[in-house]
Amino acid sequence: LRRAAGAYQPGTYGRPLATISFAVDYHFGGKDPWQFKLTSVLVHLVNTLLVFWLLLRLLSQRNVGSKWPPIAAATIALVWAIHPLQVSSVLYVVQRMETLSLTFVLLALIAYLHGRTLQRDGSRGWPWLAASMALAGIGMLSKETAVLFPVYALALELTVLQFEAKSPRTSRLLKAGYVAGLVCATVVFIVWVLPDYTAPNAFRGRDFNLYERLLTQLRVLPMYIGQTLLPLPSTLTFYYDTFPKSTGWLSPATTLLGGVFLLALLSLAWFARRRFPLAALGIFWFFGAHLLTSNVFNLELVFEHRNYFALLGVLLVLADAIRRIPVRDGAALKYTAIGALVLGFGMLALLRTATWGNNLHLAMDLVAKAPTSPRAANDLATLYVDLSGSDPDSRFFALAAREFERAGRLPNASPLPEQGLILMAATTGQPAQSQWWDRLIHKVQTRPIGPQELMAVTGLMTQRYRGLDLDDARLSEAYAALLKRRPNAEMHVQFGDYALRYLHNETLADQQFVAAADAAARTDPGYAVQLVGALMSDGRTRQAKLVLARINESASSAASTTH
Questions:
Q1: Can you say how many angstroms the Cα of residue 149 is from the centroid of all Cα atoms in its chain?
Q2: Which among 456, 375, 452 is positioned nearest to 418, based on CA atoms?
Q3: Distance of alpha carbon 95 from its chain centroid, rounded?
Q4: pLDDT tens digits for 303-354?
Q5: Start-end of H helices in 92-167
Q6: Nearest 5°: CA angle at 80, between 76 and 85?
Q7: For residue 248, what are the β-bridge partners?
Q8: Which of 183, 227, 270, 459 has the most crowded CB, counting CB atoms within 10 A?
Q9: d(CA 198, CA 219)
Q10: Nearest CA among 517, 514, 515 for reference residue 527
Q11: pTM, 2 dp
């Protein structure tokens, strides 16, 4: 459990709650996806009940208008639970980080609403507000998005709660607290966050820059709203690696239109927050849920799971609008329409869930919906390889080769398809075609170096160490191309070891170990000292002396500069 708690590498503290839950699943079910998906569905069920509980409290507030019946809260919670957009958030197992984080955010919102209701009635509510912050803090142990809880709470104050309290002092303290929080958050963003993501190399692993990312979100957010209101199967492609970026306000023109629409939506929420508090709250929650993922951070442009909570905001707006529609002949027609809406969403979710329940159907469906997506094509080809059992006579083997070839030639394709073709040949004792190596190396030399480019080359190196017979000359060429684009101390060390073990090239090994010391000097000077010890223990005295000489040279140079 301790190992599992620290298993998530990015970030300062990881995501221990989520990774521990994966470890428990593995303990009871091994690698069987059923156990993992069952737990994810149970988390989603708990969240559905919490959404229902939250809505019951929310719709009972006096500022939301006439009394809402409990069936309204149940209906909104049900639509939130069975919406087709939620399928990938729940059944794509790694997104349990998102769903489990929201469990504690929902508990925090319920506690906050309860505490504020007590304060409005003249009772002591501060312990509940403190508990809400603690619950949100626990949620951050699953994913950092729980940090958005104060944003959701502020949205409640601006709309439904309106900073009301029986004691004027409590009301003033609440307003002062939120003002201070906003000031602190703004300072942290400007002083700490912004410099990192406006640096020249902040987006070096992407095919878009900061400006293009922010502009693209002006089209992404309206698309999310459209997917929520009309979740047709053709619009939910899951893979969005071919989503076109915006390069200017009119490139494409929908960028400007999207910006105008979003600004109008926010303006409407602000000016109507007292007259239509529930709809305004829904709009604020939608934007609040995307405050991190549609901001300056170096993240993918689009992901469906980012709407896991934002979906509730859109549904609140929809529910408030439906409730206000006048009906001459009684409410029966309105109830029938709502029933048809719920049934329609449920049927669409059922169809999507059935597809997600079969690996081959899912992979083929994702390729059919996004035929130009390199990721979808690569996943389908990899699945074909698994189904073939690496038997060249299997029809799936031929399908895999064909799909890898198609994937590799798609626009903006990573080197992973070429890696797949090379590994297919190696595992069956066939020679790898020279053009596969040529394409892989060319992509490493010309594409932004992101996770897929790294995996394509380091994955081949890993298989070589496991005993797979690969062309060492071409693999060496690919690794050198990668290091030229992305110098890294540990990768230099691996390349040095590879040069000694497989290439028997001491000169190249010398260069790589010294390069590792140089790379480490900029980020982790202690790493070079550890490297000397490791080389000595492996009996590589020559390389250890060279690295030690470079350390001493760097130290002398630094001392001279300081003097």
A1: 18
A2: 456
A3: 8
A4: 999 999 999 999 999 999 999 888 776 678 888 889 999 999 999 999 999 9
A5: 96-120, 126-139, 149-156
A6: 150
A7: 251
A8: 227
A9: 22
A10: 517
A11: 0.91
